[in-house]
Amino acid sequence: MSLYNLGSMTDAERVRATAASCLTAFVENEDSDMGSPPRPNGVTTAEDVTGRLVRDPYGQPVEQFVPGLISYLAKGTKITVNQPSMPSNYDAYVRTNLHEIASGVGLAYEVLTGDFSNGNFALARLGLNEQHRLIKVLRRLVFAPQFCDPVWQWFCEAGQMAGLLPMDVTEFPVRWSEPRIESIDRGADATADRLEMRNGTRSRRDIIAAYGLDPDEVDQDIKLDQENRDTLGIVTDGDPRQVSISGVVQPTEAPTSDDPPPTKKSS
User: Fold this and answer.
1) Among residues 83, 73, 88, which one has the least CA distance to residue 38?
2) Is 0.70 surpassed by the pTM of this model?
3) What are phi and psi for residue 25, nearest 5 degrees?
4) Proportion of the chain in helix, strand, coil states, percent, rounded to 5
5) C-alpha neighbours within 13 Å on the C-beta side of residue 20
6) So what's the pLDDT on residue 154?
7) Contact 92, 51 (CB under 8 A)
8) How far apart are CA 75 and CA 28, in angstroms?
9) Do the Cβ atoms of 67 and 22 come closer than 8 Å?
């Protein structure tokens, strides 16, 4: 109903704006009872492809206004024109309906409309969090069981029929990795991920999977990248083995057990 009402309001406003843009002029003819050029009332310009006047089913001529019209009126003709007015609360009405529509479809208002003029960062983030929570629920309870799982089952059955998978296995375990939802504050999210991992409330594999990546592939990529940097002698801030988070270069070799312990000097 909100979509229908907003569409009706938008159509009405479009018609009003079109009518308001029709600049017209009327000339009363004192010498002739008919307009010049001849028209039933000197107003209509509605013609079909053959040049004949358009008439309704009752034989009455169809008259219309067009921008820039200059019409000659028959003697004694009087026209009263309705002056459509712009509703004072049109913007507020549209914005309220869009908020209601966004809530109904489960999207943030800013995402649905692209309007960021009346919101701040905190409100936009709150709306996006609600949207992302709904998307995660739909992925896990609707999309994965109704689409991903059947496709995986068909794939395994095809592999069994082709002799690529054992026939005596009735179920092949699978884990779905969700695409990453882009963050609006990557720095804060990265800090929260690191703290959760250090506090023991979240595993590193779970954090990587939340980014839509395969933890095993990420580990292999990190290992290969470290080996290449060691071979080429490249030192970067992105390797915690080489540089600490505060920017201090890490020692290349750890002290052995044969090294004497450090002595404490007194002042």
Assistant:
1) 73
2) no
3) -135, 140
4) 45, 5, 50
5) 10
6) 94
7) no
8) 6
9) yes
CA of residue 116 relative to chain centroid, distance: 12
Q: Where are the domains of the chain?
A: 2-73, 90-161
Q: What stretches in the chain show pLDDT beneath 70?
A: 22-56, 58-88, 118-124, 246-247, 252-267
pLDDT for 68 equals 65
What distance in Å separates the CA atoms of residue 158 and residue 177, rounded to the nearest whole number? Answer: 22
User: What is the predicted pLDDT for the residue at 122?
Assistant: 66
Tell me the angle at which helices 2-20 and 90-105 cross, rounded to the nearest 10 degrees.
Answer: 150
39: number of Cβ within 10 Å: 19
Q: What are phi and psi of 26, to 5 degrees?
A: -120, 135
189 by Cβ neighbours in 10 Å (0-12 / 13-18 / 19+) ranks as middle
Q: Which amino acid is at 110?
A: E
Contacts of 248-256 with CB under 8 Å at 24 or more apart are none
The structure tokens listed for 45 are 């310009």
> Could you read off the pLDDT of 129-176 as tens digits, one per residue?
778 888 888 888 999 999 999 999 999 999 999 999 999 888 899 888
State the virtual CA torsion across 153, 155, 156, 159 in degrees, nearest 10: 160
The C-alpha atoms of residue 72 and residue 225 are separated, in whole angstroms, by: 84
Q: Both tokens of residue 103?
A: 């809530």
Q: Which residues contact 144 (CB under 8 A, 6 or more apart)?
A: 176
Q: What is the CA radius of gyration of the chain?
A: 37
